[in-house]
């Protein structure tokens, strides 16, 4: 199942300027999602991070991963209209900078669920090279 921005907005509650994914290549409700973020030089955060040396903040890469995982979780019938909040971040490492012109591939696989709590294994890559990798804990509310 492929989603454009409007399709994404039909599943997760985030909106511009905080919607951090541009398209979803595919997802399996409750199991996984793969999305993309096309990093544009006009992104609001590049004005201050850093002038003359724009680098996407790591926390926003993590947010893009979380939104990708939210597509997988919130697309489940019983979670429609709900929100997925951060419960924790574990084993997360940044391996490469993300700069304007990059396209980030965001992949999240749900590895554990118990009630409203779950864990997603998340990886962000640019041109096949790992930019960030770790585990995200979420709570559906």
Characterization of this structure:
This protein is α+β, with helices and mostly antiparallel strands and 141 residues long. The protein has a single domain, classed as Roll (Thiol Ester Dehydrase, Chain A), CATH 3.10.129.10. It contains two helices and six strands. It has a six-stranded antiparallel sheet with strand order 1-2-4-5-6-3, with helices on one face. The longest helix has 17 residues. It is globular, with a radius of gyration of 14 Å.
- Share of helical residues: 10-25%
- The end-to-end span amounts to 25 Å
**Percent of residues in β-strands:** 35-45%
User: Using only CA atoms, what is the Rg?
Assistant: 14 Å
Shape descriptor:
globular
The main pleated sheet reads as: 6 strands, antiparallel
CATH structural fold name: Thiol Ester Dehydrase, Chain A
Order of strands across the main sheet: 1-2-4-5-6-3
Q: Number of helical runs?
A: 2
Spans of at least 5 consecutive residues whose pLDDT stays below 50 are none
From the helix content, strand content and strand pairing, which structural class follows? alpha+beta
The CATH top-level class label: Alpha Beta
CATH homologous superfamily, by name?
Hotdog Thioesterase
Q: What's the rounded overall pLDDT mean? A: 97
The H/E string reads HEEHEEEE
How many structural domains in the coordinates? 1
Short description:
The chain is α+β, with helices and mostly antiparallel strands and 141 residues long. It has helices at residues 5-9, 58-74, and strands at 23-28, 32-38, 84-94, 103-114, 117-126, 129-140. A six-stranded antiparallel beta sheet has the order 1-2-4-5-6-3, covered by helices on one side.
